[in-house]
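Thread: "does anyone have the structure for this chain?"

Original post by V.I.:
We have the sequence but no experimental structure in hand. Need at least a predicted one for the grant figures.
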Amino acid sequence: MDFVKFWPRRHQAITRAFVLFAGCVAPVVPALSQDDASGDQGAGLELVERFVSDVEDLTAGFQQNVYDADGSLLHDLSGAGQFLLLRPDRFAWYYETPYEYQVIADGESLWTYDVDVEQITVSPLSDIAESPAMLLSGEGSVSENFSVRDVASIDGREWIELVPKTEDSEFVSARIAFRDGLPEALELVDGLSQVTRIEFSDIEINSGLRRREFDFDPPRGVDVIGGED
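Reply from O.Q.:
Generated one for you, tokens below.
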């Protein structure tokens, strides 16, 4: 099921946060130049694999901004809230502003809950198996699904760029900014060069999150699209 089709436009950027990455317009980090790129693909791969190995859970605040291809800020797609991650295969985005919205992966399914319109969409978590969200929350080798293209140090952050190995992927490439081994920012670009940028704050790791914190029980009376009949 293509769960993107069921999401209001203002929340499609959340989907892109899972399945699209790269940054090449003015408001975000510029494309890596020959001077910036170290060419050391092993260093970038090591950064991600060390994160996957050392971090069992993570909590953080986040701020999301979305830019059009010409660099214009799309105000109706901005948002902020809390992000939780528990490996393997569990994460949650709780959007608090400007609208209350939840995206929760419980290990098997991906739940999206638009509180305003009282609608829930559920789809198999395998639908985003090769997304950046699953890259950070899943298991296995990063190199199985992605190639590391560049590594660069910009503003004290180590940026890595990932390219999906499958031709039918919904994103062209992915960028993650690491500082002291933790992901501080994500940049995402779709086929129309629309860029989603997410900045994390107040990051805490290995604080003891439990699986039950990612269980989702649909409220009574709310429409549910997808899942088992």
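V.I.: this helps a lot. The longest strand covers residues 57-67.
O.Q.: and The longest helix spans residues 41-54.
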